UniProtKB/TrEMBL annotation:
It comes from Ornithinibacillus halophilus. GO terms for cellular component: cytoplasm. The gene is pheS. Coiled coil: none annotated. It is found in: Cytoplasm. GO terms for molecular function: ATP binding; catalytic activity, acting on a protein; magnesium ion binding; phenylalanine-tRNA ligase activity; transferase activity; tRNA binding. Keywords: Aminoacyl-tRNA synthetase, ATP-binding, Cytoplasm, Ligase, Magnesium, Metal-binding, Nucleotide-binding, Protein biosynthesis. This is Phenylalanine--tRNA ligase alpha subunit. Belongs to the class-II aminoacyl-tRNA synthetase family. Phe-tRNA synthetase alpha subunit type 1 subfamily.
Length: 344
């Protein structure tokens, strides 16, 4: 039995030295030290030994077990260090390689247009005001000379939430709220940019959600000539100093008289082309003198105060200024489209 134990020790240590990974090492450990291993099998025969031989063989068996266990532990450390080294080599980072460039974003084209228009009117003394997108029927219609059942309401297909709550169809409610907040005694200039909503079918020139910027100037002795001067400055700043404007009679319930403003076509310098449909002019916004009823409902005496108002769509301005032919491009979030205007 002594010779058997010695042979098992030599064989086990040799096998341990030959293994190349942790899985093989575990298999060797089970083969020699497990419940069905070689060493355990030999020790089961100790019952046949004499009383004098048992302690001797038992001591030798313990030494063999310790030798094999020690060899396995040492080999395990070597394999762990080897695995760690291989992992470090595989995950090594070459710090001399150039870094990956970070793509810089930029403002959305509509954001840039709105900010450009805001800066322009702030420079002319206007303040920027905002209001709720979920609006009351009163401020969206009634306070703007559009009582219930007025036929002009059909011009603006509306998303109603209740009979008295709706998604605002224009930013004019902000104007009505501002006039009421001043109590009919304070002159002011303001613009109100924001999103508006209408029940419209989306196509190349229409959207159920779009942006508006409306302006309002109320003071004593405000004239149509003041409106034309402000709009002329706006047109030249946005589209070039050689742009001309013209005002055509129109109708809006909250202004009287009302006008549509056209600018001379930039593509043909007013000579007529496909862009302007041969007229030489392109419609850009609506405007007019504030209706006396609107002033009265806000607390302003129309015999003392007068004012002008205008409204424009930044999407339309962007389409004309940059040659965009489909309003839906502004809302598709296509980076290929948007990145063209990062430096616009």
């Amino acid at each position: 039995m002594k010779e058997q134990l010695e042979a098992i020790k030599l064989e086990a240590v040799e096998k341990v030295n030959q293994v190349n990974d942790s899985k093989e090492l575990q298999e060797v450990k089970v083969a020699y030290l497990g419940k069905k291993g070689s060493l355990t099998g030999v020790l089961r025969g100790m019952g046949k030994l004499s009383k004098e031989e048992r302690p001797v063989i038992g001591e030798i068996a313990n030494q063999v077990r310790e030798t094999i266990t020690s060899a396995i532990e040492e080999k395990s450390k070597v394999l762990e260090e080897k695995a760690l080294e291989e992992k470090l080599q595989a995950e090594a980072i070459d710090v001399t390689l150039p870094g990956r460039p970070v793509k810089a974003g930029g403002p959305h084209l509509l954001t840039s247009i709105v900010e450009e228009i805001e800066d322009l009117f702030i420079g002319m003394g206007f303040e920027v005001r905002e209001g709720p997108e979920v609006e009351t029927d009163y401020f969206n219609f009634e306070a703007l000379n559009l009582p219930k059942d007025h036929p002009a309401r059909d011009m603006q297909d509306t998303f109603y939430i209740t009979n008295e709550l709706l998604m605002r169809t224009h930013t004019s409610p902000v104007q009505a709220r501002t006039m009421q907040s001043y109590g009919g005694s304070k002159p002011f200039k303001m613009i109100c940019p924001g999103k508006v909503y209408r029940r419209d079918t989306d196509d190349a020139t229409h959207s159920h959600q779009f942006t508006q910027i409306e302006g309002l100037y109320v003071d004593k002795d405000v004239k149509m000539s003041d409106l034309k001067g402000v709009l002329d400055v706006f047109a030249k700043k946005m589209f070039g100093q050689d742009r001309e404007i013209r005002l055509r009679p129109s109708f809006f319930p909250f202004t009287e008289p009302s006008v549509e403003m056209d600018i001379s076509c930039k593509s043909c310098d007013g000579q007529g082309c496909s862009v302007c449909k041969g007229t030489g002019w392109i419609e850009i916004l609506g405007a007019g003198m504030v209706h006396p009823n609107v002033l009265s409902m806000a607390g302003y005496d129309p015999n003392v105060y007068s004012g002008f108002a205008f409204g424009m769509g930044p999407e339309r301005i962007a389409m004309l200024k940059y040659g965009v032919n489909d309003i839906r491009q502004f809302y598709l979030n296509d980076v290929r489209f948007l990145k063209q205007f990062h430096n616009a």
